[in-house]
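Progress report, Aim 2. The chain analyzed during this reporting quarter is listed below.
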Amino acid sequence: MPESRSDVVGCIACDLAHGRRELIGGRIGGTTRWAIEHCVGPLGVGTLIVKPVRHCEHVCDLTPEEAAELGPVLRQTARAVQALCAPDQTYVCLWSHADWQPGHIHFVVQPVWNALRADYPLQGPFLQTEMFAANVAPPRGEVIAFAERARAWLQAQDAS
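Predicted structure tokens for the chain:
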């Protein structure tokens, strides 16, 4: 296992987590090992990111504790997206590459509606590719409002 680093300056995921780059909506939830945040890219309002708190570039390098928490955190995040957005489908995929270099792993939890085909004719990874090519950032106010709703929803689930 490579040397463990908790924070890497210049890593967008670490920079967002440690306040070196603005995270619109702030941290939404998670555990001591996993963070849930709103996506900073052009994948639409309601797209959440689940990432290890510490800098980790490979799923195989997750600690046993991180691995044990991953499924429940991803499931709860997908439940939040489904409950708050009512999409036709919720995509969950791993992203960890930038310019062909390993990066901080993060799972994208994205609400998708069939109506998106009017602007993006293909689904799945093609949809995400087209959304990145269009580069339309979600409105800041909508991201903040969604983050607040998601935070409240997750807290209510934890309390029950």
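The radius of gyration is 15 Å. The CA atoms of residues 38 and 48 lie 4 Å apart. These observations will guide the mutagenesis work planned for the next reporting period.
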